[in-house]
Design a protein that fits this description.
This protein is an alpha+beta fold and 138 residues long. Helices cover 22% and strands 38% of the residues. It has three helices and eight strands; from the N terminus they run ββαββααββββ. It starts with a strand and ends with a strand.
Amino acid sequence: MWSQTEITLEPRPRGLHLITREVADALADLGAVETGLLHVFLQHTSAGLTLTENASPEVRTDLDGWLDAIAPEASDWEHSLEGPDDMPAHAKSSLLGTSLTLPVRGGELALGTWQGICLAEHRDRGGARSLVLTLHGE
C-alpha cells in the first residue's frame, strides 16, 4: 500500500518545534500499516527536519543555539537579498536536511521513547511550511 498526502504547518517562530502529532494525525492510513516506512519531505530551503529529544525543550533550544553559532547572521554572506536570516537559514537547512524516513510498526510511528519529529524554523518569519508525507507498507 502506498499513500501520499501534503500538509501545511502553521507559521512558527524561529526555533525547533515538535510536529510529531501533526504528522501522525495527517496520516489516515497509518493505523492500517503493520510494517512500513514513512517518508517526510519538507518543501522549503530555509527550514529543516530532524529527529530529536521530545521531552526536554532545552535540547531544542540548545540545538537552535548551536546552529546559530555554526551559521551566524553576522557573517559575510553573498546571498543577502532576502534579509540577514536568509542565507544562514539555507546553510542550516543543508546541515539538517529536509527529509526523514521513519519506520512504521503496528499502525504507529516506531520512534524511540524520547524521539520526536522537529521542524527547524530558521527564519524569523518563515511562514507556513509544506510537508509531503509518503507512507508505504503492508
